Amino acid sequence: MIEAHLTKLYALWLREFKVFLREKSRLVASTFTPILWLFVIGSGLGAANPSTIPGVDYQLFIFPGIVAMSIIFSSVFFGSYIIWDRKFDFLKSVMVAPVSRASVFVGKTLGGMTTSLIQASILLAIGAVIGVPFTPLSIIQAVTVILLMSFGLTSLGLALGSYMYSLEGFQMIVSFVVFPLFFLSGALFPLDNLPDWLWVLTAVDPATYGVDALRHAMLGTGSNSFEIDMAILTAYTAALGLFGIFSFKRMKAV
Amino acid sequence: MIKIRELVKAYGKLTAVNRLTLDIGENEIFGLLGANGAGKTTTIHMLATLLKPTSGSATVNGYDIVTQPAKVRSSIGIVFQAPSSDDILTGYENLHLHSMLYSVPRQIRRKRIEEVLELVGLADRKNDQVKTYSGGMRRRLEIARGLLHKPKVMFLDEPTLGLDPASREVMWKYVRTLVEEEKITVILTTHYMEEADMLCDRIAIIDKGKIVALDTPAGLKAGLGGDVIRLKTKDPQAAKLAERFDFVNRVEHSNGFLVLSVRDARKALPILLQQVEAESAEFSSPTLNDVFIQITGRNIDKEQAEGGFMERFAKYD
Question: Is A5 an interface residue toward B (CB < 8 Å)?
Answer without folding.
Answer: no
